[in-house]
Specification:
Blueprint: E1 14-15, E2 19-27, E3 31-38, E4 42-49, H1 51-55, H2 59-70, E5 80-88, E6 91-99, E7 103-105, H3 106-113, H4 118-136, E8 152-155, E9 162-165, H5 183-187, H6 201-217, H7 233-243, H8 251-254, H9 260-269, H10 281-288
Helix pairs in contact: 4-6, 4-10
Length: about 300
């Protein structure tokens, strides 16, 4: 029988005499995620980085980014509290703690719903772009670098879902050609220039455009077949770049409620030419806020 993978931490374990591990939430490309109870501050989320991420990352840069983010408060951004380390079984483990969001990821919602009603998709997208606008307009603008449905959390504490962007900075120092798990799921949301080491606010616009396309159509704008090559990163990247040579089907091809105006907004966000794309989240948001044009009368 295959061996069962053991998680890094166990329920009830106390970390740094501060955090009590309540339960394992899940696992992503960068680490394992736990719900924890802070000794004084209540429920939080702890992300413990995997060894392969630590080995390929400048953790000093991640820590500096965490300090910046810990000072930012916005309803559409998951709050960062601490970036630190602890020693366990002679191994040094690095972690980051964030605010706990009672809800689910956009990935989980799309797994159930496939396609979202236009009003819900636009509401989630507006939240996403509002959070991005906030960080892009800081004195030292922040580029997320890894926007995808896994990193968009949906809070259900109010009447309508509130979208919150998480995991800022975690992709910043990673060698993008490194063989991290779940690479395919991340690379299909990369802007073209990211494959060549260029990360700009408009790169996040492209990724956000892909998210909106997926919410409205239930599809990716380009087709990929990663069967059998999931761990071959260079081949994954080649496949993504090759697939994108084809013209994107308009969102209305898959969803007849999508208007010509909304088609054009999304396709502009997904332009492979940086000069033709929205430069910032604010530009994208302004276009999306012409909401009366986005719905069929």
């Amino acid at each position: 029988m295959p061996s069962i993978k053991k998680n890094i931490l166990s329920k009830g374990e106390i970390i740094s005499n501060t955090y009590e591990i309540q339960f394992f939430i899940g696992e992503g490309a960068f680490g394992e995620v736990y719900r924890v109870k802070h000794k004084y501050l209540g429920i939080q989320v702890m992300k413990v980085f995997k060894e392969e991420y630590v080995d390929k990352t400048d953790l000093d840069t991640v820590a500096r980014e965490a300090v910046i983010l810990s000072k930012l408060t916005h309803p559409n951004i998951v709050r960062v509290f601490e970036s630190n380390s602890f020693v366990r079984e002679d191994n040094k483990c690095f972690f980051i703690t964030m605010g706990f969001v009672s809800g689910e990821t956009l990935t989980q919602l799309l797994t159930r719903k496939i396609q979202l009603p236009l009003s819900i998709a636009i509401s989630i997208q507006s939240d996403l772009l509002t959070g991005l606008k906030f960080v892009q307009e800081q004195t030292n603008p922040i580029v997320h670098r890894d926007i995808n449905p896994d990193n968009i959390l949906l809070s259900y504490e109010k009447e309508k879902p509130i979208a919150m962007l998480s995991d800022f900075g975690l992709a910043q120092s990673v060698d993008q050609l490194s063989k991290l798990p779940n690479a395919a799921g991340r690379y299909i949301y990369f802007a073209p220039e990211c494959f060549f080491g260029t990360y700009l606010p408009t790169s996040d616009v492209f990724s956000a455009g892909l998210v909106l396309y997926k919410m409205i159509t239930g599809m990716h704008p380009w087709e990929y077949d990663f069967e059998g090559i999931r761990d071959d990163t260079e081949e994954i990247i080649t496949m993504v770049i090759t697939a994108r040579r084809k013209e994107i089907p308009k969102p209305s091809f898959y969803n007849k409620t999508c208007t010509p105006y909304l088609d054009n907004v999304i396709l502009k966000a997904l332009s492979k030419d940086i000069e033709e794309r929205y430069k910032t989240a604010d530009e994208f948001l302004i276009a999306l806020n012409n909401i009366e044009k986005a719905f069929i009368p």
